[in-house]
Protein: CO dehydrogenase maturation factor
Organism: Thermodesulforhabdus norvegica
Amino acid sequence: MGYTISIGGKGGTGKTTVAGLVVRYLLARDMKPILVVDADPNTNLNDVLGVQIKTTLSDARERMKKDVPTGMTKDIFMQIQMEEALVEAEGFDLIAMGRPEGPGCYCAANSILSELLDKLMNHYPYLVIDNEAGMEHFSRLTQKDIDLLLLVSDPSKRGLTAACRIAEMVKDLPIRVGEQYLIVNQVRTAPSDWPDDVKKIFGGNIVTFPADPLITEYDLQGKPTFELPDDAPIVKASAAFLDEVFSQKQARLSSGVRT
């Protein structure tokens, strides 16, 4: 499996915007191809990236209950459905998980999807996963091995608390996490200090991204924030942060330390 970057946090903090900035950074440095997984039921990462989706994996799961043609196995049916759900773009492919389970048993479909998604991920050197708001997807099929975990918050107490809770929960799951950072987004004036619980959990791995009026402007105009200019404050801040992350990664690789 490739290098996995997973983004989580409270809703409304700019989590999906950060996911788009990560994809943009990787593409700009020719770190591709990338598999982008939209694991948020409120599917909108495609809007940030400026691409269209036709179907989701949850739609495929629903269709498996009633639409498998006679003579076709469920595995083959789901393989075809996954291929149809995969959106191919320049340098990256996007697949959307869609809404969570509804009434009824989805065990067979989920098992097949998990296996197919694992196989798909093995074909990409970089994976970017935008999780749903909250903590649920960290214990589902998309999260097994995370190289870089980015927990996004705004400067609010509720956002910071949610990020801390996710970080604590992840420690108790059978998931390997290489590096973990708290990104405090939409910051106008950085505080002189962070709450004690935030410092205890994240230590020095706290990064601030500035409030950028262009984000609101692009959203209102229906323009993908993926296309923000290179000199936009949030683009510059995210690039500087990721430059540091990957330079440290390269230094560890050079010294023989696993990342």
In short: The mean pLDDT is 87. Strands lie at 3-9, 34-39, 87-88, 92-96, 126-131, 145-153, 176-187, 206-210. Residues 3-254 form a domain with the Rossmann fold fold (CATH 3.40.50.300). The two ends are 13 Å apart (CA to CA).
